[in-house]
Specification:
globular, Leucine-rich repeat, LRR (right-handed beta-alpha superhelix), F-box domain-containing protein, Leu-rich_rpt_Cys-con_subtyp, alpha/beta, two-stranded antiparallel sheet, FBXL15_LRR, F-box-like_dom_sf, 19% strand, 558 residues
Length: 558
């Protein structure tokens, strides 16, 4: 409170109390608004800042140096050079020391021009990384995404100055063995490490890192590192006994490396593999030794069979999440083994496994009663009866996604609707046997459904949308390419779903102006190209994202 030009309250408020107020603020805009009350509050707000997220800039090194001076208590830094930032006026020296981070605006950079030397000046370099280490000595998490100018020298500087680092993401950085070795020698508390697309790294650097950080390391991600072999995984298996998560995408890893991890890292909970040279022998070892496994994702495996899944079903009783993508030699037998042995399964995704059919999913419906999320992509052999079993047995199902499942129709959707009444998300795309009957059943039974996507399903029309509008509290709706839908169905949605915030009606040939007059107040609508100017102007939607990629902004008028 100010009286006669004097502030009577602010001087008697202790810093600790004001900082506590900042801690209680639940949004960044509120935080930024309070920081502008006075210079003192601005300074305290800077002390309260613990996280910084930035993209590439005209002078990345200078930006990092400025942020390091202003925000001394930062513990988490995320730099992603796939993003570009527009520097506001207050970043310029002549603008004075004003609030920096609160004014950053991020957007995706679609095009970049100029020579490689010119572009190099836009990227964070070792000099900027050194300044970051000197300014943020309490750093806990550091993420450097596609910072192509950063080398081992900069990483070594960070490792030496930020020895308490716990999380390090180097995706797309061309760092080498010297940098990795420095992390291993200095950052003995490191728990989370991402080395995706670190093409300069070899076994030599990763071995030193594994030895140095082995006692604390819990998560490792490796992808497209052509110089890493089974030798690196053997080091991880020998020294990283507390490892809980491994994500591995490599054409150069064989059974030997996976065997070493399975035998040495018996606390493993998450395993994601895309390794075309790995066979049943390695995955059978996972089933034998990794008894705490909760998530298993297998992508593009061409050399393992149902024997692997049988071993997983026999040993990994705690498995909750299973993804099988493009695993051509798996059949119903393997899925049945998992369903029988892993009764705690809550998430299942089957993508392009063409030999898995109805009977395999039937076993899931009968055995995995806790299933809450089911995704079936390009599963031509899975029919209605499989989902009927899921509807009967999986009462806790909340999300169902079906894409290009040509044998699934209304009978399956009706069974899901009547049995899984807690369903919140339903996504169906190019399932041409699904029509009005199935979706009407969803509208009548699934009273908690908030997200519905029915794309390119030619048999679904206005009657289905009327039932949805009458029965479901939708927030998101996508009916792109459903040619039988028109004004009548969309009007029913507009009147029956007041909480709707996002609507995609692109590629609807029968949609006219009448429906648009009902769509008031929604935050985003994707429209068909034939909508007239009258239809757009009649609606009070804040933003229209046109199918051609244009944006039409229409303010609400009271």
């Amino acid at each position: 409170m100010k009286m006669r030009g004097r502030d009577r309250i602010n001087p008697v408020l202790p810093d600790e109390l004001i900082l506590e107020v900042f801690h209680k603020l639940d949004s960044k805009p509120s935080h930024d608004a309070c920081s502008l009350v006075c210079k003192r509050w601005l300074g305290l707000a800077r002390l309260n800042r613990t996280t910084i997220r930035v993209g590439s800039s005209d002078n990345a090194d200078a930006l990092v140096q400025m942020l390091a001076r202003r925000f001394v208590n930062v513990r988490n830094v995320f730099i992603d050079e796939r993003l570009s930032i527009s520097l506001p006026v207050q970043f310029q020296k002549h603008g004075g020391e004003q609030s920096a981070l609160s004014s950053l605006t991020l957007h995706y950079a679609n095009e970049k021009s100029g020579s490689e030397d010119e572009m190099g000046s836009y990227c964070l370099s070792d000099a900027g990384l050194t300044a970051l280490g000197e300014g943020f000595t309490k750093l806990d998490k550091l993420s450097l995404i596609w910072c192509s100018n950063v080398t081992s020298a900069g990483l070594k500087s960070i490792a030496e100055k930020c020895s308490s680092l716990r999380s390090l993401d180097l995706q797309g950085c061309y760092v080498g063995d010297q940098g990795a070795a420095a992390v291993g020698k200095c950052c003995r508390q490191l728990e989370d490490l991402n080395l995706r697309f670190c093409e300069g790294l070899t076994d030599t650097g990763l071995i030193v890192l594994a030895i140095g950080c082995g006692k604390t390391l819990k998560s490792v991600g490796v992808a497209a590192c052509a110089k890493l072999t089974d030798v690196s995984l053997e080091a991880i298996g020998s020294h990283c006994r507390s490892l809980e998560k491994l994500s591995l995408d490599s054409e150069f890893i064989n059974n030997k490396g996976i065997l070493a991890v399975a035998k040495g890292c018996r606390l493993l909970k998450v395993l994601k593999l895309q390794c075309i040279n790995v066979t049943d022998e390695a995955l059978q070892a996972v089933g034998i030794f990794c008894l705490s496994l909760e998530l298993l994702a297998l992508y593009s495996f061409q050399r393992f069979t149902d024997k692997s899944l049988c071993a997983i079903g026999e040993g990994c009783k705690k498995l909750k999440n299973l993804t099988l993508s493009d695993c051509y030699f798996l059949s119903d037998k393997g899925l049945e083994a998992v369903a029988a042995g892993c009764s705690e399964l809550t998430h299942l995704e089957v993508n392009g496994c063409h030999n898995i059919g109805t009977s395999g999913l039937e076993f899931v419906g009968r055995s995995c009663t806790r299933l809450s999320d089911l995704t079936l992509l390009y599963c031509q052999k899975i029919g209605n009866y499989a989902l009927s079993e899921v509807g009967r047995g999986c009462k806790h199902l909340q999300a169902l996604q079906l894409v290009d499942c040509s044998s699934i129709g209304d009978d399956a959707i009706c069974s899901i609707a009547s049995g899984c009444r807690n369903l919140k998300k339903l996504h169906i795309r190019r399932c041409y046997e699904v029509g009005n009957t199935g979706i009407i059943a969803v509208g009548k039974n699934c009273k908690f459904l908030t997200a519905l996507s029915i794309r390119f399903c030619d048999r679904v029309g206005n009657e289905a949308l009327i039932a949805i509008g009458q029965g479901c509290p939708l927030q998101h709706l996508n009916v792109s390419g459903c040619h039988q839908m028109g004004d009548k169905g969309i009007i029913a949605i507009a009147r029956g779903c007041p909480q709707l915030t996002c609507l995609d009606v692109s590629v609807l040939q029968n949609l006219g102006d009448m429906a648009m007059t009902e769509l008031g107040g929604y935050s985003a609508v994707t429209l068909p190209t034939q909508l007239t100017e009258f239809g757009a102007q009649s609606s009070t939607c804040r933003i229209f994202t046109i199918i051609k990629g244009e944006t039409l902004a229409i303010p609400n008028e009271e």
